[in-house]
Write a structure and sequence with these properties.
With 128 residues, this protein is α+β, with helices and mostly antiparallel strands. It contains three helices and four strands, in the order αβββαβα. The protein has helices spanning 21-30, 66-83, 105-123; strands at 32-36, 39-45, 53-57, 90-96. A hairpin with a 2-residue loop joins strand 1 and strand 2 (39-45). The longest helix is centred in the C-terminal third of the chain and has 19 residues, at 105-123.
């Protein structure tokens, strides 16, 4: 099984996560935004690592309860694991807008599908 994929309980490996504050700042400074309210992402092409990386910045303003923030982050990570092989070498930082906590699982998956297609369209990658 390829790294970074697997069962829903599998963790994302360190090399496919954005963890350092400097990496988040670089993505926000040099990336372009993809907005599908109440979710948005900043995408920085050509991250130099050879694979897509994920960062999450879901603020309390977007989802006041920790349980809602964690649910959204868990679903984004799961969806990223399933789509990472299709994505080009980009840094993706997801952030939420007010009302994110009201979105259900199907709406979130549809929103993420739109974002993946936009990333592939703008930066290259595999549509299948």
């Amino acid at each position: 099984m390829p790294e970074g994929t697997g069962s829903p309980g599998a963790q994302l490996q360190r090399r496919v996560r954005i963890r350092q504050p400097a990496e988040f700042k670089l993505a926000f400074a040099k990336g372009f935004r993809i907005t599908r309210p109440p979710l948005a992402a900043v995408c920085r092409p050509d991250n130099g690592t050879g694979s897509a990386r994920l960062g999450l910045a879901i603020a309390r303003k977007a989802a006041p309860r920790a349980v809602d923030r964690n649910r959204v982050k868990r679903l984004i990570r799961e969806n990223f694991r399933h789509n990472r092989q299709r994505l080009p070498a980009v840094d993706l930082v997801f952030y939420g807008m007010p009302g994110l906590h009201q979105i259900d699982k199907q709406q979130l998956r549809a929103t993420l599908a739109e974002i993946w297609l936009k990333v592939i369209d703008r930066c290259g990658g595999k549509l299948t």
